[in-house]
Design brief:
By secondary structure, the protein is α/β, with parallel strands linked by helices. It contains eleven helices and seven strands. The chain has helices at residues 3-10, 30-43, 61-69, 94-107, 122-128, 144-151, 170-182, 205-222, 224-256, 258-267, 273-284; strands at residues 18-24, 48-54, 80-86, 112-118, 133-138, 159-162, 194-196. Strand 5 (133-138), helix 6 and strand 6 form a beta-alpha-beta unit. Helix 2 (30-43) crosses helix 8 (205-222) and helix 10 (258-267) packs antiparallel against helix 11 (273-284). Bound molecules: guanosine-5'-triphosphate and magnesium ion. Guanosine-5'-triphosphate binds at residues 26-32, 118, 163-164, 166, 198-200.
Length: 285
């Protein structure tokens, strides 16, 4: 069996896991928080998988080494599986790859899949869209509140965690965030929970887990969860469709010999790219 066929066989077993996303600036304490959350959930008898995605890293070596350091304090790691992903390993994009990995872990029977991404850029937003719930991890005194607003990540965040609340400025950041969300046009977003945590001291973890579970149940009961998962599947379908169609059409057009001629028209700027597409399609009819 090829990889794809295997995936097709596994896919029907997916769709049961809860996908929790965690994002935030580099060094905000995401890994520490995710590890603590994983341990907490695992102590409740759940099976946990962690996917650490680093869109900025060209190599996965460092990330994997980081993983070995992770969880070192814990003895109860048998139910916790950790997988790193960096941009180099992702043909066709990091978000689709992350979705596939999450799907496999989901089918394998993990109850919770925790996805960590570093940064606040477009790549992270795309990855976080896969998650059922997104937690934005912030740190006092880094201007995170304002930065998050700019990046648009605030629009997809469901929960804010002010980590490193042992630092000065935690109260100020909370005020800034409250101010920012009070201005949100979407009324629902004005109730976003803001949790203070000190992940390195295991403080606030219980509340984070509680809030996430509550939010998850809420999404389930309102039907938003189903909607969200359907949107993600629809995106995957469209991505597959465009890649398959592209290949198919290019192959057909190459066989008909039409494509070379049309490329000449394109290079000489007689035909626009859009016009070339129309000509290619017309030649296939
Ligand atoms: N003072 C303090 N330090 C913390 C806290 N949480 C994590 N740290 C420390 O912050 C540093 C970075 O933590 P990580 O969990 O690796 O942060 P991260 O966001 O995963 O970092 P990247 O994945 O590299 O972006 C580590 O030295 C942690 O021990 C906290 O609440 N307070
Ligand atoms: Mg990390």
């Amino acid at each position: 069996l090829e990889g794809r066929e295997i995936f097709d066989l596994i896919f029907p077993h997916s769709g049961k896991a809860s996908l929790f996303g965690f994002t935030g600036a580099p060094g905000a304490g995401k890994s520490t928080l995710v590890d603590r959350v994983a341990l907490k959930l695992s102590s409740q008898g759940k099976k946990i998988a962690i996917i650490a995605v680093d869109p900025s890293s060209p190599f996965s070596g460092g990330a994997i080494l980081g993983d070995r350091i992770r969880m070192s304090e814990s003895s109860d790691t048998e139910r916790i599986f950790i997988r790193s992903m960096a941009s180099r390993s992702a043909l066709g994009g990091l978000a689709p790859k992350t979705a596939e990995v999450a799907c496999l872990l989901d089918a394998a029977g993990y109850d919770f899949i925790l996805i960590e991404t570093v940064g606040v850029g477009q790549a992270e937003v795309e990855i976080m869209r896969l998650a059922d719930i997104v937690t934005l991890v912030m740190v006092p005194g880094m201007g995170d509140g304002v930065q998050a607003l700019k990046a648009g990540i605030i629009e997809i965040a469901d929960v804010f965690v002010i980590n490193k609340s042992d630092y000065d400025g935690a109260d100020r950041l909370k005020k800034e965030l409250l101010m920012a969300i009070s201005l949100a046009s979407d009324k629902k977003r004005q109730n976003i929970p803001i949790i203070n945590a000190i992940a390195s001291q295991n403080k606030g973890i219980e509340e984070v887990v509680e809030v996430l579970s509550r939010r998850f149940d809420e999404l389930k009961s309102t039907g938003e969860l189903i909607q969200k998962k359907q949107n993600v599947l629809q995106q995957s379908f469209k991505r597959e469709l465009s890649s398959v169609l592209l290949q198919e059409i290019l192959t057909k057009a190459a066989k008909s010999g039409k494509i070379e001629e049309l490329m000449k028209m394109l290079y000489s700027r007689k035909y626009s790219p859009r016009k070339v597409v129309e000509e290619v399609l017309a030649s296939l009819k």
